[in-house]
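Why should sequence recovery work at all? Because a backbone constrains its sequence more than one might expect. Tight turns favour small or flexible residues, buried strands favour hydrophobic ones, and helices have their own preferences. The token representation captures these environments compactly. In the example below, the structure is given first.
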């Protein structure tokens, strides 16, 4: 068994066998049936799974390597951009050299969409796609594991218990990241554990400490320089999972906890990829050099670039305006100050689309829903970030 076999992506010689397993995985076929042929799946499940299996066999003909699979994913990503977005804008590629490997550290809003769009922008710009860091909390189904590892994902073990096992898992992740970069493979990882469901993007210094573990005897400034960290910002005009996230946040605020139903992460993954997102804007920042002596200093610079480059939309301003005039005094006071400073930047004469989306949200979740859309703007303002101007169509 190789050193990283329990966390690494699949390799070329494993692709054919994994695809064969997926095509015959009844649970995977049932999952796809729910999204591709929901009506047929309810009436005649065996027929629906048979149709999905035929479709999979047709789509995987000729795929015998990771590059083949990546090309298939690129075509799938192009369809998603065309069918679920009113536009996809990306910028900052000029900061990158195509023959170098980078450690992309991004804000995290969607389970699979963030890294997929980073890959898509890199691929169509002539750069290699990335290896994607994924928490092992998502490894609940074999088919999910197979799909992620075919798509160059590797696992960060977060479920280990006991100080020694936790340290060993973090060290293995750090070593794999350094080995990947050294072999010319770029990495994408979220700036903190889990999605920023509340819309507040912030880098966890613990992530940066993990990066340095494999070179813990070296000066941090040199480690950071060699890692070539590139902050990445992604902004979705509309979040397909906004109601699911609002449900979780409301439960935590009201009861202190949220019991996630089995399979909810897979539902979120499917919704995030397949449903309407409006405009999506992605921007690569500038690689970090030397001169950062503490994890906190590195985190501060990543946050600065992520927030400076994070695009705002009219819906963010509208949500803020709604909260700034809320009946609850505490809510009103919390958001009115920011609104008073930014309201001159936006024309909210047509908010029909926003109102309709809010109306579709259960009433008890609407205040939380609004905060999720207002918080990115509030976070930018409170941190003195540049570019508060909303996107102009």
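From this structural description, the recovered sequence reads:
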């Amino acid at each position: 068994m190789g050193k990283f076999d329990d966390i690494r992506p699949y390799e070329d010689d494993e692709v054919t066998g994994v695809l064969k397993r997926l095509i015959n995985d009844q649970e995977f076929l049932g999952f796809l049936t729910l999204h591709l042929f929901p009506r047929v799946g309810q009436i005649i499940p065996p027929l629906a799974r048979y149709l999905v299996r035929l479709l999979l066999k047709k789509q995987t003909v000729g795929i015998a390597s990771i590059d083949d699979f990546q090309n298939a994913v690129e075509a799938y990503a192009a369809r998603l951009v065309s069918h679920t977005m009113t536009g996809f804008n990306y910028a900052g590629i000029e900061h990158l050299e195509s023959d170098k490997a980078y450690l992309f550290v991004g804000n995290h809003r969607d389970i699979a969409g963030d890294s997929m769009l980073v890959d898509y922008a890199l691929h169509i710009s002539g750069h290699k796609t990335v290896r994607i860091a994924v928490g092992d909390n998502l490894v609940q189904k074999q088919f999910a594991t197979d799909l992620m590892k075919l798509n160059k994902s590797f696992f960060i073990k977060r479920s280990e218990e006991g100080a020694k096992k936790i340290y060993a898992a973090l060290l293995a992740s750090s070593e794999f990241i350094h080995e990947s970069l050294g072999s010319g493979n770029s990495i994408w990882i979220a700036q903190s554990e889990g999605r920023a469901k509340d819309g507040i993007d912030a880098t966890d210094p613990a992530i940066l400490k993990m990066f340095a573990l494999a070179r813990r005897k070296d000066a941090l400034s040199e480690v950071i320089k060699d890692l070539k960290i590139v902050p990445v910002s992604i902004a979705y005009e509309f979040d397909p999972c906004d109601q699911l996230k609002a449900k979780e946040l409301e439960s935590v605020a009201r009861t202190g906890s949220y019991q996630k139903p089995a399979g909810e992460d897979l539902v979120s993954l499917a919704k995030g990829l397949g449903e309407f997102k409006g405009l999506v804007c992605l921007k690569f920042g500038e690689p970090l050099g030397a001169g950062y002596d503490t994890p906190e200093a590195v985190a501060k610079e990543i946050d600065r670039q992520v927030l400076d480059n994070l695009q705002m939309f009219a819906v963010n301003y509208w949500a803020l305006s709604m909260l700034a005039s809320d009946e609850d005094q505490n809510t009103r006071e919390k958001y009115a100050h920011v609104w008073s400073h930014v309201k001159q930047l936006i024309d909210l004469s047509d908010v029909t689309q926003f109102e309709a989306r809010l109306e579709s949200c259960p009433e008890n979740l609407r205040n939380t829903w609004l905060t999720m859309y207002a918080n990115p703007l509030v976070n930018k303002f409170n941190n003195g970030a540049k570019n508060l101007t909303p996107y102009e169509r």
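A few observations help interpret the result. The mean pLDDT is 93.
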